[in-house]
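Handout, page 2. Input:
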Amino acid sequence: MRAQPLNYSRKPHMRTARFCLVLFAALSSNALCQSTPCASDNDTTNNVSRLITGYRSTGPGRWGFRYVPAKPVPAAAMRIFTGSNYRNGFMQLQVWTEGSGLPQTMLATGTWNSPNGTPNGWYGTNFNKLTILKQNVPYWIVWVEGGWNQVSYEGQGTSYKTIAWNGNSWASIAAANWKFRFYCGQLLDQKNAPVFGSACLSSSGDLGTTFSNMEPLYGTKSYRIEGTNFPPGAPAVFLLGLDKNFKSLSFGTAAPGCFLNTDIFFMFAGVTGTGDVRAAAAAGHTQIVLPLGPPVMKGTFLAMQIAVFDKKSTNPLYFAFGNAIRSSVF
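Output:
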């Protein structure tokens, strides 16, 4: 284990489920199945184009598509269909307001690790804050990546206005059938790896959270649990628990609004990154990798919570605490 850091158009058809507006800092889930997206498009199949991004010498690639919600979307997390078969790196998803027909102000962001050899699939991140996308108001969804990655386009379906960053400004490119999923009032979870407990805000006002883009499948050599939107360049602690009946405990005045969301069987040390998506460790991101290969692991329950030192915090503990992920190896 280690801790380290095509232009096709038709009438749009969005799938939007009923949702509840809840306080983002108190999001949790106890389901053993992956949560259903509340707003999505071009996601009924895993069909994807053969396009991959190029590699820009001027910096990471930035791609955006214009999204106008048919209903309000209280976005807490998002996934796209992508993969990385040529190089290690990170990816980000961002939500921006529109100004003069282009991205203007960033509302939300999140980061995840996409190492070389990541097969095409649905991957994403939690946002740093609950962001309510208003009905019939245009927004820009921006994907930031390091280069040589699978583009989240389908060969047919709803077409979206698309732009790319040329190093100096945004430039229009051919409209594309973006594959995406929003999660409303719900942090990312996986089959047999639900979210447990709540996260608390850091001194910057961001919500650092714990998540995984992998199922805790027996035999997995590198089960990756990640943290995003924590204070950058700071010591991190991974709290490993084994008690599936543990109930969250408030830190009270020692860290108002923060909770211990797992028992502590063991602790691992880590650090959050400071770089961009091409760096060895991306800003505010941290991760731990666990091998689930030994036979004794099958059926094992593992809880993981991430806590990161926050030197500007006003709470006596000087830590930002994430939610926990409760993994049952199957």
